[in-house]
Specification:
Blueprint (H helix, E strand, L loop, with lengths): L4 H6 L3 H23 L2 H17 L14 H28 L10 H7 L2 H4 L19
């Protein structure tokens, strides 16, 4: 008798978990995208969902032969999306509480004005400048 995918996932079989991933990654991604409306956040939700599913694999009911693990994964994805959203709100709040800094003036023009002609022409200060017609190029 063949052991079910559920029992193998519960037992920590990496091949079974790989199969679970390939069977349901698209559904989890679509669910994450519907919840967030953002592709990169949906990808983050997918990765965190499967990490959490691996951590919680011992909670899978090994006896449910005919039922899919998709609802279990989508439930995990929903909780992960809530956690991601909550973390983003906390991060935004922390950034908003930081003191505002003055804008730093652009000093590029000042630095450019200080560069002498030799550096502007591309000749490094430690080597002689080899230009056509100069005595150094005749060597």
């Amino acid at each position: 008798m063949e052991i079910s995918l559920r029992a193998r996932v519960r037992g920590g079989d990496p091949d079974a978990f790989r199969q679970l991933f390939y069977d349901h990654v698209r559904s989890v991604y679509n669910h994450g995208f519907r919840l967030t409306g953002d592709r990169s956040t949906a990808e983050e939700i997918v990765s965190l969902t499967f990490l959490e599913a691996w951590r919680l694999r011992d909670r899978v009911d090994a006896e449910g032969e005919d039922s899919s693990l998709r609802p279990w994964l989508l439930g995990i994805a929903t909780n992960v999306a809530r956690n991601v959203r909550r973390a983003a709100r906390r991060h935004d709040g922390a950034v908003a509480r930081l003191p505002r800094q003055e804008a730093v003036p652009d000093f590029a023009e000042e630095v450019t004005g200080r560069i002498d002609d030799r550096e502007r022409s591309g000749c490094p200060p430690t080597r002689p400048c080899l230009r056509s017609g100069s005595p150094a190029t005749a060597i």
